[in-house]
Amino acid sequence: MRHPAPTPVLIVGGGPVGLTLSLLLSRHGVAHLLVEAHPGTSHHPKARGVSARSMEIFRRCGLEEAIRAAGLPASQVFFYRGRNLVDPDFVRTGVAHRAPDGEEHTPSPGLICSQDALEAVLLGRARELAPDAIRFGTRLLSFSQDGDGVDAVLEDRATGDRQTVRAHWLVGCDGAASTVRAGAGIALQGPRGLQHFLSIRFEAPLGEVVADRASASYFLTEPGRGGFLAVDNDRHWIYQHPFDPDQDDEASELTDHQQLAALVREAAGLPDLEVTVRDTMTWRMDAQLADSYRESRVLLAGDAAHVIPPTGGHGMNTGIGDADNLAWKLAAVIGGRATDALLDSYQAERRPVARQVIDLSVDNARARAARSGYRIDDELLLTATYRSPAGPPLDPSGYRPGSAPGTRAPHLRLIGPPGTSSTLDLVGPEFTLLTPTAAPAWQRQVDAAAAAGIPVALRPLNTDTRHAADDGDWTELFGLPADGAVLVRPDGHIAWRADHPPVDATELLTALGLRGR
After folding, report:
1. Which residues are CB-contacts of 60 (< 8 A; sequence separation ≥ 6)?
2. Residue 342: predicted pLDDT
């Protein structure tokens, strides 16, 4: 049967990217439906690194505290290198932070939170915000589209019941083997099978063994040994065993728990370790990018749009950034404040980011294969810049705060009421005009935009209840005089800046890139 009324957005895929998109659409007041073929969230701790930029997005959604509680303590976010887990000559390094001593680039540093734990937090909040919009155990069978929307055939996997849903927009967040991408006829380009791994989830009393070297990941330098991933750095672990499918067919089909436990003991260097194997999975390291992120009324995000090697921890985070970029644009188009041409900017802004992240991750994979180590950079995605003619969208040399259009608005520490301790906390679901003080000239600009039907929130840093921690930080970080301002998009990126208030609202309205009444 047909859905009783069209849904503005149908999200296919209930992993971290799809759930983040659901949260953000709810924040923008956009009705939607999310379907996920699996009956529940992931049981296997796969993607684990949550970058600073992703944590800033979750902070906006009110989830930072819950995600930190579900992740590893900051004291354990290190990376170990040794022949095995008991190597006396081990090396332990931290995540790369490029900020000089005392300089703070973000209010929300990244952390390690395994995908199974992260998804549970995201799903709980998504259901709170849109209780009737989240359907697990429901798969997309097929879809067709016309110029006005998409007709999608869904199946309840428990009952076999089928339903046709009409959606204005379909977003595929359904992973590397995306049904949505295939149905839209969008190809993936790039190498497959760079490496293959057998992932063993197990329990073992390793907490005391690693007490003096607790880390998030344990890279083993012995050839062919792979490494361990800490789930809790106590009893719960993942062992990643590399194999060559052309020479080691048995590894990918290994199911005997005694043999699996023997692999774990050998890699750990603990022949008497008590090991209980819980489950296994095999996976292949690919490096692929979709030819397009949009085909008419169909859009792609996350692994459906880009398959990124996990070496560096940026795959899931790039997808979360996709959701952040796409959500406000869908909201603007659905709300009539922009034409669907705005959605073309989604590919223009996000695809170059994915291309560069793939290349950096492939370089890291080669470094790991050569056992020379590689860099984990928590702040890489803070450098993402949109519409910049100066060079690539990411700057691997490090984040430098500024207010150039396209860059992420800088974090400036604020002192005031709880919940507003950073300039990033002032960015709302609408466009935000950040200024040092509530100057009447800027208020007139905001009023003119409102009169044209485009909501813009004026957010001065200094008010009766809050103020910047350092009076000089605005000029230093934003590079603007005291009466300047930046117009910040709902995803935290700067759309426009001005040293002084313009004479009329034409510049501001043009910078918004939206249409009013």
Report:
1. 27, 424, 427, 492
2. 94
